[in-house]
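Predict fold of Delta(1)-pyrroline-2-carboxylate reductase family protein; 314 aa.
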Amino acid sequence: MSSILTTVLTAADTARALPYPALARQIEAMLRDPAVVVPARIVQALPGGGSLFVMPAADAHVAITKLITFTPDNARRGLPSIQGDIVVFDVTTGSRIAILDGPTVTARRTAAVSLLAAQKLAPRTDGPLLIVGAGVQGRAHLEAFHAGLGLLEVWVASRNPASADALVRHAQTLGLRARRVDDADAALADCPLVVSTTPAQHVALRAMPRCDAFVAAVGAFTPAMVEWDAAICRRLAAEGTLVVDTRDADHEAGDLLQAGIDVSALPTLADVVLNKQTWVACPKADRQGPVFFKSCGWGGWDLAAARCVTDISP
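Predicted 3D structure, encoded as C-alpha cells:
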C-alpha cells in the first residue's frame, strides 16, 4: 500500500485515485469476492429534514465506514447536499490507512455502478445520452459514460437552465457533442441511454423510454423520493426489464415502491454479474422493452472505491 494512504485525501486526490473504468472493474471484482461483508446501513433522521448515513463494509484486506450527511435544502444555502468522509482501515493491523472525501466517492462510485450496469445491460451504448438533472451526479455520469462507453453525444435537461448549460459546456470541453433540451419527456424518444439524477422531490419523467433504451435511475434513494411516474414504472415492469443495484433497494427504491412493484422479486446487479438463477430465470427473453436499472446506494460500492484507492484485488 502506498504511503499516501496515511494522509487525508482531498476531493481532488480522491477523484484522481478513482478513474471511472478502473472503479467499474473494481466494483465487478468486489461483487465476485465472497469475503465481502456489508451490513445494513444506518440512516438517522436529523432535525430539519436531513439524514446521517453510517455505512460499514469489509473484505479480507480493508474495512471502511462511510459517515455522510444528506441535507436536501443545502442548495439554497450554497452548500453541497452530501458531506462527510470515508475512513479506511487495514484489516490485519486495525490501522487507519486513509480518509477519503465522502462526496467525491459518492459521486464517482454511483456513476461507476451505473457504468457497469450499462456495460452489462444496455442494448445500445452509442447514445445520445440523456441526462435529467445537471448537478453533481449528472456531471459524474457524463464523465463515467464518456470514459467507459466511448460516448460521443449528450443531451441535458434540468429544471435550472443555467445548470444544464454549464453541464453542456463541460461536455463540450471533453470533446462531446452536447446540447440542452427543455422537454425531457420528448427527448426520451431519441436517446437509447438515459440517466435520471434529479433531487427526486417530485416526478420529473412521465414518458416511456424507447424500447432499446437503458435507463439508470439514481436520484431517488429513499422510499419517499421519486423521479419516475408510477404508471411508467408499472409499464416498465410489464414490458421491459427491471434490475436493482442491491437487495437494499427492496425497502429504498422509491420510484418502484410507490408504483406498487414487488422490488424483492427483481434481480440485482450481482445476480447479473454472477449469472445467478434470479437473473437467468428473469422473463426477459420475450420482452422488447427498455432496461431500467434502479440504483439506491450501498456500502459495498464505497468499499470498492477504497479497494481501488489501495490497489487491493481479491
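The first helix runs from residue 11 to 16.
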